[in-house]
């Protein structure tokens, strides 16, 4: 009888230990929101030092830029060089940081609809994404791709994004586009493109600038159309001091949508000290972590 009691107690203890271990594993796996910064905006575009600075800022990861575009056929992308790419990946691993996405910010000043080599440039980004095991690419349609100002470019944008969608699907990645359209219009645009590999890279500043309801815009798009979020506004004040954004309400909205993923800090710098990278991005990162983690 005594032996049976000992065995029963041992079995109970092992069950409790297993449950505790499972609970910790679940807790670690359940990190629905991660915070990143952008190498371009911390003044380290495609520089290895961006990782150490990101670590000092306190973020979980980094959005790496593909480099300048200008009048080149494709991006000035140092990550296409095997040795450089390995250095970047090794440094991320060493500092326990993740590469959240690759950004094609060179398109901000370009016309995605009209540039002859636009699709080739995106293909080069997709190739680099595959080589670095990065799942999201950021493609801003840019000032000259603004479909509110230039609605006549919509057919060309749709046609080209259909091509990009096929390439991204084949590579197993997602290209997140940023537009000036309302969420309702973005839903229509995505329906016309018809590819699950083309989604919206949502930026808080776009609806705020246009006077739209940030929280309703998120809900209209829904969790399956948003790949990542630039949790940023224009440069004026830190996120914690921004009267235009109720970050707790943002979190409630995202939780209600069951959206999980990367929140990438792009701007929201103090206009009185815009080049103080550590101060600006450190404050914004700490605030975002206090809300979302």
**Would you tell me the structural class of the helices and strands?**
alpha/beta
- Spatial strand arrangement across the major sheet: 1-2-3-4-5-6-7-8
Approximate helicity band? 40-55%
Give the CATH superfamily of the largest domain.
Answer: Divalent-metal-dependent TIM barrel enzymes
Examine the secondary-structure arrangement and name the CATH architecture of the largest domain. Answer: Alpha-Beta Barrel
Instruction: State the order of secondary-structure elements, H for helix, E for strand.
Output: HEHEHEHEHEHEHHEHEH
Largest sheet: 8 strands, parallel, barrel
Look up the CATH topology of the largest domain: TIM Barrel
Which regions have little confidence, pLDDT < 50, spanning 5+ residues?
A: 6-29
What number is the mean pLDDT? 91
Shape: globular
Q: According to CATH, what is the class of the largest domain? A: Alpha Beta
**Termini separation (Å)?**
50 Å
Number of strands: 8
Domain count: the total is 2
Provide keyphrases for this structure.
single chain; 293 residues; alpha/beta; TIM Barrel; 2 domains; eight-stranded parallel beta barrel; 10 helices; globular
Question: Summary?
Answer:
This protein is of the alpha/beta class. The protein has ten helices and eight strands.
Report what the structure shows.
- The chain is an alpha/beta fold and 293 residues long.
- It folds into 2 domains: 1-30; 33-292, Divalent-metal-dependent TIM barrel enzymes (TIM Barrel), CATH 3.20.20.
- It is built from 10 helices and 8 strands.
- It has helices at 2-29, 49-57, 82-94, 118-132, 154-171, 183-193, 205-209, 214-221, 247-257, 277-292, and strands at residues 33-38, 61-65, 98-103, 136-140, 174-178, 198-203, 226-230, 261-265.
- Strands 1-2-3-4-5-6-7-8 form an 8-stranded parallel barrel, surrounded by 6 helices.
- Strand 7 (226-230), helix 9 and strand 8 (261-265) form a beta-alpha-beta unit.
- Helix 4 (118-132) packs parallel to helix 5 (154-171) and helix 8 (214-221) runs parallel beside helix 9.
- Residues 6-29 have low confidence and may be disordered.
